[in-house]
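Let's practice the habit of predicting before peeking. Look at the sequence and jot down your guess about where helices and strands might fall. Then scroll down.
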Amino acid sequence: MISDGELSVGERVMMEEMRKEMALSADFDPHYLNVEGTREIFDTRRSRSIVLISLVRLGYADGAFEIEEQSFLKVLCNEFEISNDDFALIENWVRRLITLEREANAFL
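Done guessing? Here is the structure:
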């Protein structure tokens, strides 16, 4: 989320939502985690896919999926053993989800 050097308002909002979903305390301080070894933390394809979906959504939170964010996620995909084709499917799905969310918000 800050691989592009900035933490936008949209990214902050999404981080707060994720913190609540994970039942982390309000004083939890996000920190860097080495990519190497995360395969053991997220030890199923399902959990890895959820992480990637969440991170791609976070990447688009400021309206632009920056090259630095994409590069980081490519490294993570290698660690997670997620193919480029599967990553492209995830990114496409997230973009469609964002479009649908915007359409829904327009109705409200």
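How did you do? The mean pLDDT is 85.
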